[in-house]
Q: What sequence folds into this?
């Protein structure tokens, strides 16, 4: 066995509040059709690969030096992209970047959550929100959605008044259910929130609704919009998440970020990938159309499908969702059991991948769910 393999986790002087918890764990299995982690199924185009390679080669020449701690050039490029995407004039001072939006969210809770503070989310939602809360010792307050998984704004404002959380998470479009929150509802939530509001827009580019970035000018003292290059930008392996907020919020995050957290290589690669935004995002429109096609097909087979504004679909109802998940896997199709009774989540893939998924779905539907 491994050196030290006889030591058991239970013997370690781990923090009491972390004992018995399970880590984030989407299975990474080598099967023909992988539709379980909401990635963009299209690999980067050759021009982008060449551009990233050249940019990284250039960056390699200065690897003996620490990177720009403030990632100013990258933040400038992100500001240009996000301004274009949302129509809101942003500058580098409004942007912050980290290794995936997970790190962004962690920095937010390090600065605005922590011991003695609480964070609230409307469940089911992104499973990392409570895990990051646990890691930062922020008390997690789960709040409900309607039975159709949509957000009940009126009820939400009551919950906020009752619990007065220091931070709230609003995921729009919501993972794993797919619905996004209209701007008017977001405004109501932000007004009602006693503390910071994090709108997690990891899937924003797939949605037809306007971004919460539009509310930043009005609510700079409490609003943070989190984004990522992992989904629409087909850059999940590059690890680049970012946020838009008032400059003062970014000053606050500087207090908790590790120095030089974004490597020279990451900054160079992300900037190169951003130069190809237009081309990459063209695939996003194809994926949104595919999503609607897959949805119709599932409905035609008798599945109930939650309306989705993202690149994945939550569907059911299965007698035993985990059993159904295994049946997909046995046919070489990896989708996601997100733990919602009777439901599974599938990421929209290439048309070919979706065909395989739909063929298996048809067999499962006719065999009885
Ligand atoms: N937010 C949501 C809602 C997500 O679904 C994900 C990825 N599954 C993330 C944030 C984090 O993604 P990343 O760290 O790759 O940016």
A:
């Amino acid at each position: 066995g491994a050196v030290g393999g006889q030591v058991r986790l239970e013997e370690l002087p781990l923090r009491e509040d972390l004992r018995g918890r399970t880590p984030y764990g989407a299975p990474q299995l080598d099967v023909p059709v992988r539709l379980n982690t909401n990635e963009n199924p299209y690999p980067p185009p050759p021009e982008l690969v060449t551009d990233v390679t050249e940019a990284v080669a250039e960056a390699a020449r200065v690897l003996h030096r620490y990177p720009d701690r403030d990632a100013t050039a990258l933040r400038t490029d992100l500001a240009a992209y996000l301004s274009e995407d949302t129509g809101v004039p942003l500058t580098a001072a409004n942007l912050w970047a980290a290794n995936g939006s997970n790190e962004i969210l962690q920095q937010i809770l390090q600065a605005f959550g922590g011991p003695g503070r609480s964070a609230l989310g409307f469940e089911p939602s992104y499973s990392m929100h409570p895990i990051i809360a646990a890691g930062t010792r922020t008390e997690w307050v789960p709040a409900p959605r309607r039975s159709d998984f949509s957000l009940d704004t009126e009820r939400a404002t009551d919950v906020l008044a009752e619990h007065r959380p220091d931070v709230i998470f609003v995921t729009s479009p919501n993972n794993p259910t797919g619905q996004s929150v209209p701007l008017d509802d977001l405004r109501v939530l932000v007004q009602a929130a006693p503390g910071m509001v994090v709108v997690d827009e990891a899937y924003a580019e797939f949605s037809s609704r306007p971004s919460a970035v539009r509310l930043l000018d009005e609510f700079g003292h409490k609003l943070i919009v989190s984004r990522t290059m992992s989904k629409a930008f087909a850059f999940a392996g590059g690890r680049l998440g970012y946020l838009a907020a008032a400059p003062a919020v970014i000053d606050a995050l500087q207090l908790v970020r590790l120095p030089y957290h974004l490597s020279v290589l990451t900054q160079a690669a992300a900037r190169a990938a951003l130069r190809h935004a237009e081309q990459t995002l063209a695939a996003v429109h194809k994926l949104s159309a595919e999503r609607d096609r897959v949805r119709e097909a599932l409905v035609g087979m008798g599945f109930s499908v939650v309306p989705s504004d993202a690149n994945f679909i939550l569907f059911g109802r299965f007698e035993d969702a985990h059993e159904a998940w295994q049946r997909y896997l046995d046919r070489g199709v990896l989708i996601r059991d997100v733990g919602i009774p009777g439901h599974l989540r599938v990421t929209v893939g290439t048309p070919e991948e979706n065909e395989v998924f739909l063929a298996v779905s048809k067999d499962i539907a006719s065999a009885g769910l």
